[in-house]
Design goal:
This protein is an alpha/beta fold. It is 30% helix and 27% strand. Strand 6 (128-137) and strand 7 form a beta hairpin. Helix 2 packs antiparallel against helix 4. The longest helix is centred in the middle third of the chain and has 17 residues, at 100-116.
Length: 210
């Protein structure tokens, strides 16, 4: 079973190497919509896949970090990067070209990693992000699926190391250590014999009927 939650952010970018001249050569912006699909194969004690309120924690914080910022590929010229860094408080340096497809894959990777690194306390089944849609406009979107995260051709530039937030963004995040916690958890999990403690904690329900 799946549930869907929608998020929004505004940002600017340049999509290098594309055939549309305006997109490839000029800074421009979009009002992005991100649809996150979460799936489970049983329901929790409340009869839900996941309480929608829990999306407001690390998932919302991560997506909001992209809002009102300029996003740029780390292959931009040193001169261009210096200009952005010296004039923008909020910017995101990316290890991939910031196309809608790149965003869909990146958000899918990070949001699924966040869900899997969260300790839940209401009988939730194992959860995963099954799909992510990213709309740049109201007439088209890019969508990623679970299998895409295992495709080396799609993911060759996208990893937990491919997103770097500016100091101005980190200062405004509810948890400025979110990325550090996420990377440390998965680094430990890759080499530890015993699974490490999950870094994110979902609050338990206020009351339950048994």
């Amino acid at each position: 079973m799946q549930i869907r939650r929608t998020f929004h952010f505004c940002a600017s970018h340049i999509v290098r190497n594309c055939t549309s001249k305006r997109c490839a050569t000029s800074i421009h912006g979009h009002n992005y919509e991100v649809e996150v699909f979460v799936e489970a194969h049983r329901l929790d004690h409340a009869g839900m896949v996941l309480d929608f309120g829990l999306f407001k924690n690390e998932i919302a914080g991560f997506i909001d970090a992209f809002d009102h910022a300029h996003h740029f590929w780390d292959r931009e010229s040193a001169e261009f990067q210096k200009c952005i860094i010296s004039t923008c408080t909020r910017y995101v340096k990316l290890g991939f070209n910031p196309s809608a497809e790149g965003y869909a894959l990146m958000f899918h990777l990070f949001l699924d990693a966040i869900v899997c690194a969260t300790e839940f306390h209401n009988g939730e089944a194992p959860l995963s992000v099954s799909s992510v849609r990213v709309h740049e406009t109201n007439y088209g979107y890019a969508q990623s699926f679970k299998a895409d995260l295992q495709n080396p051709h799609l993911m060759r530039h996208i990893s937990l190391e491919s997103v770097h937030f500016s100091a101005g963004i980190l200062e405004e995040m509810r948890d400025p250590t979110l990325l550090d916690k996420l990377k440390l958890y998965y680094n430990l999990r890759a080499c530890a014999l015993i699974p490490p403690k999950k870094p994110f904690l979902a609050p338990p329900p206020l009351s339950q009927i048994h």
